[in-house]
Amino acid sequence: MSTASAMPRIDLRSDTVTRPTPGMREAMAQALVGDDVFADDPSVNALQEKIAKLLGFEAALFMPTGTQSNLCGVLSHCQRGEEYIVGQMAHCYRWEGGGAAVFGSVQPQPLTQQADGSLALADIEAAIKPDDAHFAKTKLLALENTWGGKVLPQSYLSEASALAMQKGLARHLDGARLFNAAVAQAAALGTSPYDEAKRIAQCFDSVSVCFSKGLGAPMGSALCGSKAFIARAHRLRKMAGGGLRQAGFMAAAASYALDHHVLRLAEDHQLMQDLAQGLSGIPGLQVETPQTNILFVDLVGEAKAQGAALQTHLKQAGIDMTGFYRMRFVTHLDVDRAGIDRTISAVRQFFNA
Ligand SMILES: *Cc1c(COP(=O)(O)O)cnc(C)c1O
């Protein structure tokens, strides 16, 4: 057996790859459950109340995936022939199979994002259609935070939110990694991550948050909003086949994650800083400054042709990542300092740096 295969693999492809911790498994095993289609699952009900309260909303709905959560969110805001303004590279436009158009006849109006992930306010304003039979009705502004690991500034969220309100648009946040944004923001301001999560969320009428990413639960998201909004989303979730039965085992994992895995996201962010630091200065690599748990590294110049070889080299060293010209590394619950040190060494070895 080679040394690499004897060592644990380091999976930096995504924060979705985490396995439940012993504490989380214990919470799942102990969960009280019932049939959630009858609204009888105490663990699901408790989770929905908990996340709604945490983020400052009237109600919440447990969702199997973030994609279904965004879909039900967009379709709860928009009718057929209406449209939502969204980033060109946003998950709920680009990475969800065109679901809002396919299932809801809702038209996306994608806009090119700024480098920080935001949509320029002037671009949003210019994209809002006049009330005219030629145009789809502009109904919703959908933002994403974090986007590619970047935290949208709180001041921007307030401004975009005010603009949307002034123009009569609803506001949806794809906050798959809302808690990563909150933890980074809280670290910068010296405040509480839970307070920051609420502050971010309160710039929106609805928020979708993933438990299956850095929070380390096996699956699940929550969609939060007003009671009336959640009632519409509940009907859509049923139509989408998302009415789950004894979902409490999964809700218990999510609830455990909210209690135990929010503050520790700071460790993922720190390890990402260390990885970026360790990779900087290698000729041929352009290393971004990470803000949270995601790092992009571009291969430039002659190194550009070496992407596939580098990925193979890392794989043989027991390290998984994605991307060839633009490498993506993601830290999470199942990555530790030793893993990051091994990754830095393996990349340096490849480049003889
Ligand atoms: C992961 C993710 C989602 C939802 O993904 P699922 O795999 O469907 O749970 C939505 N938005 C963003 C930004 C994401 O990263």
Overall pLDDT confidence: 96
Principal-axes geometry comes out as globular
**Count of alpha/pi helices:** 15
Q: How much of the polypeptide forms β-strand, as a percent range?
A: 15-25%
Rg measurement, Å: 21 Å
Structural class category: alpha/beta
The helix fraction, in percent, is 40-55%
Contiguous low-pLDDT stretches (5 residues minimum) are none
User: From the coordinates shown, what is the CATH architecture of the largest domain?
Assistant: 3-Layer(aba) Sandwich
Describe this structure in words.
The protein is an alpha/beta fold. The protein folds into two domains: 22-259, Aspartate Aminotransferase, domain 2 (3-Layer(aba) Sandwich); 264-350, Alpha-Beta Complex (Aspartate Aminotransferase, domain 1), CATH 3.90.1150. It is 44% helix and 16% strand. The protein is built from 15 helices and twelve strands. The chain has helices spanning 3-6, 22-30, 42-55, 66-77, 91-94, 99-104, 121-127, 154-166, 178-189, 193-201, 227-239, 248-260, 265-279, 307-316, 337-350; strands spanning 10-11, 59-63, 82-87, 107-111, 137-144, 170-175, 206-210, 221-225, 285-287, 294-299, 319-320, 326-330. A hairpin with a 6-residue loop joins strand 9 and strand 10. Helix 13 packs parallel to helix 15 (337-350). It is globular and about 60 Å long. The protein starts with a helix and ends with a helix. The mean pLDDT is 96. It binds pyridoxal-5'-phosphate.
